[in-house]
Amino acid sequence: MHRAIVERYEPGYIELNRKGILKERVEILKQILNDCTLCPRNCHVNRNAGKKGKCRVGSEIIISGVHPHFGEESCLVGTHGSGTIFFASCNMNCIYCQNFEISRFKQGEVVSVYTLAESMLYLQKIGCHNINLVTPTHYVPQIVEAILIAVNKGLKIPIVYNCGGYESVETLKLLEGIVDIYMPDIKYSDNRHGLRYSGVPDYWDVVRLAVKEMWRQVGDLEIIDGIAVRGLLVRHLVLPNNIAGSEKVFEFIANEVSKDTYVNIMAQYRPYFNAFLKPELARRITIQEYKEALRIAQKFGLKRIELSPWY
Q1: For the chain, which domains are there?
Q2: Which positions make up the binding site for [4Fe-4S] cluster?
Q3: Which segments does the entry list as coiled coil (predicted)?
Q4: 178-197 pLDDT, tens per residue?
Q5: What is the value of pTM for the model shown?
Q6: Alpha-carbon distance 310 to 292, whole Å?
Q7: Contact 190, 245 (CB under 8 A)
Q8: Binding-site residues from annotation
């Protein structure tokens, strides 16, 4: 991260650490693993005892990759990349997941919380503009503990929470002041599609509450010298045959969150993994479908739109 940006923005977790609040949050979150309600699945299993719920992991941390990423949003990538940490498994089961080896088959390496902290410090050392936590939901206690360790060793760049949108408001509240940039997907505007294609029965109900809580905490995306430092960035993947229900998604963002929301409207859908089992998902989107999504977003007054590089 550029020196000038670091001097002008201090992540909230640094102040929470000074006040001792960060350590308190770690203890609260670790206790939740005894009867896990971290995400809306509410599995109520003791993950500290090795039990596994819908996310298919216990108390261990499984990481599949740590590196600068240059394929993320331009305001995250900058000149030195977004410092991505890819976590294995997921609390959703999207049949078209492009990272299914990681999300479904848990491809990766088991690491300690200290190694996770060192990974964050390494990404900062090589110049990444942020720590981009990819699919972090089911590892929140371990991640916050790693941040506590890392901040005491000099971590000072923004934390990006890169998730599928299926989040518990109660858990998000425990992340207030720790996460600088929330980056949720809004996948569908129909609970039935959430169940059919991602295995969760209440996706649309849950994601709306989650995104509103994220925005309450961090507000609209703030960008300094071209680099995002704090705020909400929403991703919306356009799916074939309007399965994503884009109109209701954009209407919700504009009318219930903020018309100044930074939205990445993505065109890179491919029928990965088991998508070919659903004929309606077994093709790429058309240019016309993507243009229609853009038109609808603009109709609702959304202006901060990042176009897909695949467009």
Answers
A1: 3-307 (3.20.20.70)
A2: 90, 94, 97
A3: none
A4: 999 999 999 999 999 999 99
A5: 0.96
A6: 15
A7: yes
A8: 90, 94, 97
